[in-house]
């Protein structure tokens, strides 16, 4: 017995000796943002608002692999808003654990794939077109194979809450369900999910991509398939100061046809110079909530951004027609943002 213990201790010590960790570096940065917002469909009251972000970034080396850590804290500094831990293994790819950064998978390429000077056409009141997988407590992987960039995300269980160490999450119902039946189905529609995006550059300046995601359903409703699915396709082209983008997406919270979304949109952005950029974007979203007639939401946005050193002034003007697919539910949102980086 003593010999076996000695052998076990020796093997453990040998394995620990193979772990080489270099001293890492930690940096702190922050931003302060003041906004002026006007929305004709809401009681504006005092239009001024403020947001402060404090970001900690760390980098180090573990057995020759580059390790990076980023976490952003909320205004009060009492909790994290988002955190990302990655290990870059070189030719073997990059693996990471994400809590809210949205760095992996299909959801990373929603409307944000459109090149804009500031925000997307849905900013200030539009309806999102993807989001069946969540970006909390997920594991991601990125790599490039023969020119094809692969971005994969695995979520053991849908959740809108970041788990603390030693904790776990439960099922989360879909808050956008429109009927009791839909809610019953979608409450069980949040099992594990796997989603991915693959992109390729066929021409200089051009990128095409496509993605797919599926979240397993666990509904007990007889004879029904409740797996949630989403697909994505896009193309972007950059030539000189001009950037153009187009995308199409489809989301289905179950395969029966209720609570589905189909979207398409485009944008064009122009870098006037190193400091000034302008853009225009449009998006159309068809919403199926199980009724006989689908509703269509239209979004458009004009964006301007001017940066000088650590200061940036951004302006967004967005129109949202038939929000949520409801005819006559319109709004016009204007936002002016001043950001100071430290």
Characterization of this structure:
7% of the residues lie in helices and 51% in strands. By secondary structure, the protein is mainly beta. Strand 1 (21-39) and strand 2 (48-62) form a beta hairpin. The longest helix is centred in the N-terminal third of the chain and has 16 residues, at 2-17. The N and C termini lie far apart (61 Å). Residues 4-17 have low confidence and may be disordered.
Q: Which terms would index this structure?
A:
342 residues; mainly beta; globular; 16-stranded antiparallel beta barrel; Porin
Q: Please state roughly what percent of the residues sit in beta strands, choosing from under 5%, 5-15%, 15-25%, 25-35%, 35-45% or over 45%.
A: over 45%
Helix segment count? 2
Query: Class by helix and strand content?
Result: mainly beta
The rounded distance between the terminal residues' Cα atoms is 61 Å
Estimate the global geometry from the Cα principal axes.
Answer: globular
What's the total number of strands? 16
Spatially, the strands of the biggest sheet line up as 1-2-3-4-5-6-7-8-9-10-11-12-13-14-15-16
Helix amount, in percent? Answer: under 10%
Largest sheet: 16 strands, antiparallel, barrel
Order of helices and strands: HEEEEEEEHEEEEEEEEE
Evaluate the radius of gyration: 23 Å
Please report the first level of CATH classification, the CATH class.
Mainly Beta
How does CATH name the architecture?
A: Beta Barrel
Mean pLDDT over the residues = 83
As residue ranges, the low-confidence spans are 4-17
User: What's the CATH topology label?
Assistant: Porin
């Amino acid at each position: 017995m003593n010999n076996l213990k000695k052998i076990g201790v020796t093997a453990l010590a040998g394995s620990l000796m193979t772990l080489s960790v270099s001293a890492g570096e930690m940096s702190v940065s922050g931003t302060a943002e003041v906004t002026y917002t006007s929305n004709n469909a809401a009681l504006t009251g005092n239009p001024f608002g403020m947001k402060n972000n404090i970001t900690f970034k760390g980098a180090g080396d573990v057995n020759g692999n580059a390790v990076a850590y980023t976490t952003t804290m909320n205004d009060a500094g009492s909790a994290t808003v988002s955190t990302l831990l990655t290990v870059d293994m070189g030719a073997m790819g990059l693996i990471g654990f994400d809590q809210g950064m949205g760095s992996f998978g299909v959801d990373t390429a929603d409307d944000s794939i459109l090149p804009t000077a500031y925000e997307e056409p849905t900013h200030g009141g539009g309806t999102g077109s993807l989001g069946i997988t969540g970006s909390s407590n997920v594991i991601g992987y990125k790599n490039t194979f023969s020119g094809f960039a692969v971005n994969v995300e695995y979520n053991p269980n849908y959740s809108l809450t970041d788990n603390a160490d030693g904790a776990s999450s439960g099922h989360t119902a879909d808050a956008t369900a429109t009927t009791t039946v839909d809610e019953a189905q979608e409450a069980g529609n949040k099992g594990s999910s796997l989603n991915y995006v693959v992109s390729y550059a066929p021409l200089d300046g051009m990128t095409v991509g496509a993605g797919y995601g599926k979240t397993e359903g666990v509904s007990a409703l007889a004879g029904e398939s409740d797996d949630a699915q989403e697909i994505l396709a896009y193309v972007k082209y950059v030539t000189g100061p001009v950037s153009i983008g187009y995308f199409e997406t489809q989301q289905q919270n179950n395969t029966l046809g209720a609570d589905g979304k189909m979207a398409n949109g485009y944008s064009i952005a122009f870098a006037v110079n190193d400091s000034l950029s302008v853009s225009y974007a449009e998006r159309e979203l068809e919403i199926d909530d199980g009724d006989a007639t689908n509703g269509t939401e239209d979004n458009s946005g004009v964006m301007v951004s001017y940066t000088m050193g650590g200061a940036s002034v951004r302006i967004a003007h967005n129109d949202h027609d038939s929000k949520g697919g409801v005819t006559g539910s319109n709004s016009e949102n204007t936002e002016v943002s001043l950001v100071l980086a430290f």
